[in-house]
Amino acid sequence: MTREAFFVIEGGRRLRGEVRPGGNKNAALPLIAAALLAEEPVVLRNVPRIRDVRTMVQLLSELGASIEELDPHTLRIDTRDVRPRPLNPELCRDIRASILLAGPLLARFGYVEMPPPGGDVIGRRRLDTHFLAFEALGARYEVNRIFRLRAPDRLQGQDILLDEASVTATENAVMAAALARGTTVLRNAASEPHVQALCHFLNRLGARIEGIGSNTLVIHGVDRLGGGEWEIESDHIEVGSFIGLAALIGDGVWIRRAVPQHLRMVQLVYRRLGVHFEVHGEDIYVPPEQPLRVIPDIGGHIPKIEDAPWPGFPADLMSIAIVMATQAAGPVLFHEKMFESRLYFVDKLIAMGARIVLCDPHRCLVHGPSPLHGERLESPDIRAGMALVIAALCAEGTSVIRNIVQIDRGYECLDEKLRALGAAIERVER
Ligand SMILES: CC(=O)N[C@H]1[C@@H](OP(=O)(O)OP(=O)(O)OC[C@H]2O[C@@H](n3ccc(=O)[nH]c3=O)[C@H](O)[C@@H]2O)O[C@H](CO)[C@@H](O)[C@@H]1O
Ligand SMILES: C=C(OP(=O)(O)O)C(=O)O
């Protein structure tokens, strides 16, 4: 019988001290996939020990890669013995990032057959942009219950306009184009920190990618990629989550190695909720006693918080910002433009006492502050799960959060980190 894990949280404790975020999940996953392109071993440091990474590692191992854990956060990946084999459908369904195996496998073997990916249930997650890019590079594809991609002749560089700035589609296109014949120009490319990390890592292995950080990438195909090492940066979404938590119930919290360069938009948007944090070199300090108050737009208008591709406000911080808004005085409109079902979790916040109107699947109006009380909750996805943990830590009384397997997908040792800050949170397994 499989055991179920849940969090039991006693709200109302003030948090104080310091916390160190894990490596960026959405960087680790494409970097592990990119190891398939390298003809020599690669070493990845600061790899987060989270479920999604374990699944990705298992997928590569089943393909024949040899993966050694040099220390708890360092992987040495050698893919020289990888051969084209059917991919495990259950593992593919577990994570969205399994689709990231398509680009490197296509570039390396000219053929991929794979089951569809899974990932967070936050709305329909289209893959059309991935196939648009592969087709432009010369691949043919069939999409039935499984995806089949064929490019018997080497992929050929092209000038490609992506129909949306999809993160994983950009990563797949870059990996496929890195070994293509000739030059690819990838327009309307995503430029999130993890996309940039992938491009820099590939360059370290010998790829020739220009325009990193912009929305036009120029990829000069090379004949081979060698080995190399890379240190994954801290997860800016985890940092944004801790800032939110510390602003609500912190008595002074330091976040170490917090990649402040990736938090400029977060800082602007959190300011609308009256939340401030200080940057001290690579660290961030969230001061206590923040007067959480929604700052109206010029003219006294109700402000709006919406997500957008980088350098816009990250979609993965919307749920966190919504919980923050429940404790800030005044009204604020949230417009979730990227995912169709991410906002449904606000029903759980309403059950805890939050004053929120879900206007439609994409918009909700939050009017705080409202005291929250403990509830029995279920975590629908990683970020809503983290948002519910924050709400439970703010609430009066005890909350039970089930389905924390979702939270474990993206946050490493969350309960241990929170306990070290003074939170009353226990992981219970039954
Ligand atoms: C493994 C991984 O890296 N997952 C991340 C990746 O998912 P993923 O790569 O799947 O997300 P995409 O960037 O493809 O798209 C996310 C959503 O935004 C919409 N969209 C996208 C681009 C655009 O210009 N306009 C637009 O509306 C898409 O239709 C989709 O509904 O990026 C998402 C957006 O940052 C994050 O939430 C996920 O955590
Ligand atoms: C949506 C997320 O992840 P994935 O794309 O892996 O489902 C996330 O990290 O919030």
TrEMBL record:
GO molecular function, one term: UDP-N-acetylglucosamine 1-carboxyvinyltransferase activity
Catalytic EC class: transferase
All residue ranges annotated as the Enolpyruvate transferase domain in the record: 10-418
Binding of UDP-N-acetyl-alpha-D-glucosamine, residues: R96, D316, M338
Residue spans crossing the bilayer: none
Reactions accelerated catalytically: phosphoenolpyruvate + UDP-N-acetyl-alpha-D-glucosamine = UDP-N-acetyl-3-O-(1-carboxyvinyl)-alpha-D-glucosamine + phosphate
Pathway(s) per entry: Cell wall biogenesis; peptidoglycan biosynthesis
Active site: D120
Pfam families given in the database record: EPSP_synthase (PF00275)
Entry binding sites for phosphoenolpyruvate: K25, N26
One GO biological process term: peptidoglycan biosynthetic process
One Gene Ontology term, aspect cellular component: cytoplasm
Subcellular location: Cytoplasm
PANTHER family: UDP-N-ACETYLGLUCOSAMINE 1-CARBOXYVINYLTRANSFERASE
Function: Cell wall formation. Adds enolpyruvyl to UDP-N-acetylglucosamine.
Family statement: Belongs to the EPSP synthase family. MurA subfamily.
Name assigned to this protein: UDP-N-acetylglucosamine 1-carboxyvinyltransferase
Natural source organism: Thermoflexus hugenholtzii JAD2
Organism taxonomic ancestry: Bacteria, Bacillati, Chloroflexota, Thermoflexia, Thermoflexales
